[in-house]
Amino acid sequence: PVKRGLFILDNLLGTPAPPAPGAVPELEQARERITDRNPTLRETLELHRQEALCRSCHARFDPLGLALENFNALGQWREVDAGQPIDPGGVLITGEAFQSFDELKAILRDSRRLDFYRCVSERLLTYALGRGLEAEDEPTLDRLVADLDAHDGRPSALLASIVRSAPFQRTRTTEPRE
Fold first, then answer.
1. Is the pLDDT reported for residue 54 higher than 80?
2. Cβ pair 78, 16 in contact under 8 A
3. Which pLDDT does position 2 carry in this prediction?
4. How far apart are CA 25 and CA 21, in angstroms?
5. What is the C-alpha R_g of the chain?
6. Please, what is the angle between helix 113-129 and helix 101-110, to 10°?
7. CA gap 134, 132 in Å, rounded
8. Which of 35, 63, 82, 124 could join 90 via S-S bond, C-beta 3.0 to 4.6 A?
9. In the chain, what is the greatest distance between 2 CA atoms, to the nearest angstrom?
């Protein structure tokens, strides 16, 4: 769940979590506190988050990753973890609550749509320009997001907007053309 949550934050919402501090206890240490049974991953993460240092970061990505907990490492659906039913519900750091993966998808689609559009636009513009984005690229990025939103997120609209953008039109190659 941690890696999945971090992936969503970084690659879909464009809001990467800060790196973990050096003195963070391992997840396995929290698991060892439950001795009478095999704890679920959710229970282990809850114990891990009892540390204030851990809670500050894990509150960002654990709910996202735990919403995907019904999927195993191969992407197959499962209903139980450690002999207990999987609870995919959670509350995002922004306060939105969900009970299932489908509800999380709806939240991301509806209230986090522009975050996703900005992230994908930024990544694709970076690729198209062959360089990292700079402060002067922000107005272009804003136009790309607005165009993408106006066209209901159609990738073809984003590609066309990038090709029409001034930074792309002014890109120079360092190799001579034949």
1. no
2. no
3. 87
4. 10
5. 20
6. 70
7. 7
8. 63
9. 73
Q: Give dist(CA 65, CA 42) in Å, integer.
A: 10
Contact 16, 60 (CB under 8 A): no
CA 60 – CA 36 distance, rounded (Å): 30
Q: In whole angstroms, what separates CA 80 from the centre of its chain?
A: 24
Q: Record the tokens describing residue 82, joined without a space.
A: 């450690």
| Lowest-pLDDT choice from 18-22, 84-88, 157-161 | 18-22
Rounded average pLDDT over 34-63: 81
The three-state DSSP-derived secondary structure of the chain is CHHHHHHHHHHHCCCCCCCCCCCCCCHHHHHCCCCCCCCCHHHHHHHHCCCHHHHHHHHHHHHHHHCCCCECCCCCECCEECCEECCCCEECCCCCEECCHHHHHHHHHHCCHHHHHHHHHHHHHHHHHCCCCCHHHHHHHHHHHHHHHHCCCCHHHHHHHHHHCHHHHCCCCCCCCC
Q: Tell me how far apart the terminal alpha carbons of the chain are, to the nearest angstrom.
A: 51
121 neighbors 141 (Cβ within 8 angstroms) = yes
